[in-house]
Amino acid sequence: MFSKAQCPLIIFWLLSALAADTQANSAAGVDTLLGNTLNPTGTDTTQTLDERGLATFKKTFSRSPTGLLYEPPFSPPKFGKIDDWHYRGSIEGGFLIDDDSAKPENFIEYSDWSEGPLLNYFNFSSWQENKGYFLNLSGGGVGRDDQYYLAQGGRYGLFKLTGFFNEIPHVFETRGLTLFQGVGSQQLLLPAGLVPGNNTAEEIHSALEAASRRSLDLSRKKGGLGFEITPTPHFRIHGRYTQEANKGTRPFGGTFLAPFYTGGTAGGVVETVEPIDYLTHDLLAGFNYGARRYQLNFTYRASFFRNQKKTLSWENPFKNLPGDSFVVERGRFALYPDNDFHNVKLDFSYRLPWRGLFTSTAAWSRMHQDDGLIPPTVNSGQADSGIDLNNWNTTAALSQKTAQAEINTWLFQVGLRLVPFDPLTLRADFRYYDEDNDTDYTAFNPLTGDIGYIVEDGADPGRGFVFQPNQPARPFHFRNIPFAQRKKNWSFNADYRLIPKTTLGLGYQREVIERDYREREETRENRLIARVSNRSIPWATFRFSYEFSDRTGSPYRFDPYTAFFTNSLPEFNSLLPQGTTPFTLADLRKFDLSDREQHLFRGLVNVLLGETMDFSLSFTRVDNDFDARFGLLHDENNAINLEWNYQPSPKLNTYVFGSYQTRTNAIANINDAGFSTDPNAGGTTFPLSAAWRENMDETNTALGVGFYYQFDRFTLDGNYSFNWSRSEIDYEAASNLSLANPELSLDVVGNSFPDLKYTRHILETNLRWKINKNLALRLLHRYERGTIRDWHFEGLNSLIDNHLFLVATPNDFEVNLVGLLIQYKIP
């Protein structure tokens, strides 16, 4: 809900008006379709379907070119008139009640279902008969956390001004339990009685019993202003400014040590609460010019993200490692940095002979962030590793004070379409994309002359990561890797009409990607496409396609990052005389770089079962086979969708739909169970006895039914949807060395995780009683039930050994909501 202080801002957004151009070529229509869960499309809730359907005189029902029935339209609005101004208005308001005052987070995640008065929708429209001026005002959920408003005005054919404001909540947890005080700020403090870095489990338990539960949520508020001017029929100028504010809290991470090797008292996992206070400014400006044979579009976009909370620090509730005298009092994270984005885009198209069209695009983008960097640690004193943290807890310990990070991209694209003779259509496209990463940072401390950084604020004495020249050590990462790429795409397509209403298409695509600092310098993918569409049967439409692609590339280098690790330094001395230990299994293939064969099948069938009925069936199958022994081995996706529509009259229509999707994949790897320079599978570092494989099988089902019926003065509509999903994960382990914690035995861990299951039922019904031409009464009901079975949260407590959790767990819920609303229209 908005406060009195926010009202002038909302009024300014609405009445000053902003450009929200609805033409797709400028993409300036974003945020002009507003709504919430109770009215997702933001349309006039007082409207009813036109009893005449799409035509006054035509008796048969209208269909799309693919044979599907069009939805019945709404009745044309009726306008009153004062002088030469036409006007209309509508409003809907009433009261909401429900049977669950607790409001589970799964139910209110993006909605405000608060009991009480509700102004669900309002609208006022007016236009001038002679000069063409117009004004449209609409909104809904007034004063609630999911409210929205839209204002548009101007003069038809000359200019348009539009303004909007909308708010969306995001509830993560309604009963989160945290030990910390100062939630929502940048500093999380332990309660009185606890000492940072030195508490027993019993003391932490006692403090948790006194802690109160709280909601973890944020609110997104967005508004904007702009314009559209059309001084001539061929020239249009448009612009837009939007501002988005996100404020609140959400679950966040925090850790000092790996959880299973620290023992029951030393600090491992700590769940914290992130403060959210973001502000984003977006700008868009451009023009469109069209002549008889060509069209030119220019667009400039900019985005400026500002985070008012730069860091998050928290006090450590746990003790140190046994034998470690250094007290780790605090931990700290750097939060999302301020950043800027600029994009300039130019589109040009020209009509050619042979019904041809030439299109081209040139674009440049710049992403830049120069936020101030935080010191390597927040703590002070002498760590057990021998490092004096007083030389590392200041910005003077940084090689540069700001990030100086920048990425520039270029995009060039051309396309050609020709119809040399009637049955044949030819298309060719070329696209070039260049991404240049100009970001360079070296972890170097000018105060000490050392290369490196402090790990986990000094919590792990064995992982100081400060380079000691000529001292035996393992290499570590000390420079950022400026990943960059250049991508080229070619596409050639031909469509030929074999017989009337039957078309055969063939296509070829090629993609070449050159990458900097990746395991493969280049990947090459070739794709062949065959497609056919048939409309020769009066009662059906068929479309099928098959695609085959083959990706290969340059030789695979399992470790291309040596230049960014300390073993590239001249004074590096490895623990092993033969060389350094490998970071990655040489036989592992990353899925975006490995050789791959892909088969893609698509099909669509639309069947006319009669003048008032249709049926649609579509399916997709994607089969990816990766030529790899380790990594992602294969990935398969299948989907089938069914829909049946029945419209015996404009007063009655109903539909049924169903969707079934499956996905299976498998990944494999070998744990680094040994200590040697051998990177190969079966060697000392990666013995086959430490190999493992994981298989995932996921199934998703969606079913739904809906209807609409008008009789006498009543309108009854309803819809029901059911969603069900299950994820099965099983694994194979060669021995206990394959486990993340090798101290466990295979008998204990078994060979699979419990299935993850999710179900959701949503039933909505509406009964509308038209009392007279202006007044109506609407009774709505919404039933929603959801269940989640996720083994990650089974038996989860706020404190388990050295794990501190928020207990932000998903819960089953069942809610009935009833609303009684009055609708009134003018004239």
UniProtKB/TrEMBL annotation:
Q: Which InterPro entries match?
A: Decahaem-assoc_OM_MtrB/PioB
Q: Would you tell me the protein name for this molecule?
A: Uncharacterized protein
Q: State the signal peptide span.
A: 1-19
Task: Please provide an example of a Pfam family that matches this protein in its UniProt record.
Answer: MtrB_PioB
Q: What is the lineage of its organism?
A: Bacteria, Pseudomonadati, Pseudomonadota, Gammaproteobacteria, Chromatiales
Q: Which UniProt keywords apply?
A: Signal
